[in-house]
């Protein structure tokens, strides 16, 4: 268990991306989680339809989000639309949830997994809280007993991400339920980021909303599932006693979100068939297979994701430091994220994003590079 109250203030994503951009050779970008596949056809059509709308439709909407979108999400998630706030991506959704955890005045500590998506501890610090990381099991799954041992009266919230970035683990709903019990015992919130819910290869993913607990916040967005990270359309589902304060904070910071983006997403939700999402999963399965097969040739140890679209790899004698990531960019032409950016548990590893159709080529480059070392 590691306390981190000032780490991750400046996530390394953009530093790595800029280093790759400035390289004097061709580099396969496996850093960003920006999907390279097509968004739903209905989303493009929704934007075109909106562009031809009346001037009144170009004005402010309700701060909590476009009504038709909130009602569509609510119906799909089996919750009351009044509990929903449509946000500027999952990033704001998580910020609002963590801010509400602090405002409850029931502690100032956030329990996070290790490894962890770096923006969570950054938000904790920004909100005046402290982040404590609890290492996951060797298979990447959350350590319920570890969370229970770490929880205390100082805990404001436990934050989970499933399917997980960077490990690819899909947490069993029974484990999530146990952690919800832990949070309740210490009067904390459980915040579950489900942004990768459409990228479940295990068939086991089940939303924390099915637990129907009054202290659980679930966040998500359409950035990944519809390949629209630039649209910034996400949402949070709050307990009834917290939603008004979250809505007010959202309004004071943003006034409201993007109306055309939300309108396009609403149309896409209504008209996009399940085959769209399955086709994307099929593409990712092929990339995972090709990438890990080539990693075998490189003699690497690696994770095979149960969900999301990241692979962690460990190369003998080549820990996942920023220096080594830069070395791979310069000498192999492949850009990944240093494991140390996500915490201590996987600091020997390097994370690779499969959001590129050059994944197999990148793996071949890595195999050639390490064969020559």
UniProtKB/TrEMBL annotation:
It is an enzyme of class 2 (transferase). Pfam families: Aminotran_1_2. Its cofactor is pyridoxal 5'-phosphate. The keyword Transferase applies. Belongs to the class-I pyridoxal-phosphate-dependent aminotransferase family. InterPro entries: Aminotransferase_I/II_large, AspAT/PAT-like, NHTrfase_class1_PyrdxlP-BS, PyrdxlP-dep_Trfase, PyrdxlP-dep_Trfase_major, PyrdxlP-dep_Trfase_small. The lineage of its organism: Archaea, Methanobacteriati, Methanobacteriota, Stenosarchaea group, Halobacteria. This is Aminotransferase. Homodimer. Its EC number is 2.6.1.-. The keyword GTP-binding does not apply. GO terms for molecular function: transaminase activity. It comes from Halobellus rubicundus. Residues 26-358 form the Aminotransferase class I/classII large domain. Keywords: Aminotransferase, Pyridoxal phosphate, Transferase. Gene3D superfamilies: Aspartate Aminotransferase, domain 1, Type I PLP-dependent aspartate aminotransferase-like (Major domain).
